[in-house]
Amino acid sequence: MPLTRYLAPLLFGLIGAGILVGLGIWQLQRLDWKESVLAQIESRIAADPEPLPQVVDPEAQRYQPVQLSGEFLPGALRVLVSQKQVGAGYRLISPFRTDEGRVVLLDRGFIPVAQKDLTPGTGPAQVRGNLHWPDDRNSSTPENDEAGNTWFARDIGPMSEALQTEPLLVVARAVTPADPAITPLPVSITGIPNDHLQYALTWFSLAGVWLVMTAHFLWRQRKNGAS
């Protein structure tokens, strides 16, 4: 059989595999970039505390560490969440008045569903935490049940209206004195997706499959031509 009969499928197979390998390499480059971004975020989260900003800039101040002195005020909003190895529960969002007189939203942490009716303590406290503008809501997130005090996303605007605070959220890392019934859920990089390695492996696997299929096709062509 003339060799030219194999040329077109061979080129098709090699070009296709080359494209898939290129996509895998691109995902590895994206992985390096994402790991660098995550390292910067971790460094920002763990930096020295700064004062609460007077002018809010969510991009520049995202994850900004803060240390507050003041008091918890009455009231708490419950945000439905789920914790690994614990199950469903709620984040408790309370109003916190600083010594300077500012009142902000304070994400105190997690309580299990069984403690739904817990009334969190009020009074003086010291808080270490981070400013956060969470992106909890997506197309499948239900609307908040404000009347029943069950929230499905930390919507800062509506929450600040409900608790009469500034539209500014601090997520607690540590609270003194600690409330043993509430487990802080500090800001971390855990929830930030980084799937580039899996994507790279997928593209490389597809390239391997593509080459195997090409080799099998050429073998069949040769076998049929010899028969």
TrEMBL record:
Top-level division of the source organism's lineage: Bacteria
CDD domains assigned: SURF1 (cd06662)
Chief location category: membrane
Stretch list, region Disordered: 117-149
Keywords: Cell membrane, Membrane, Transmembrane, Transmembrane helix
Transmembrane region(s): 6-26, 199-219
PROSITE patterns: SURF1
An annotated GO cellular component: plasma membrane
Cell compartments where the protein resides: Cell membrane; Membrane
Protein's membrane topology: Multi-pass membrane protein
Family: Belongs to the SURF1 family.
Name the UniProt record assigns to this protein: SURF1-like protein
Native source species: Salipiger marinus
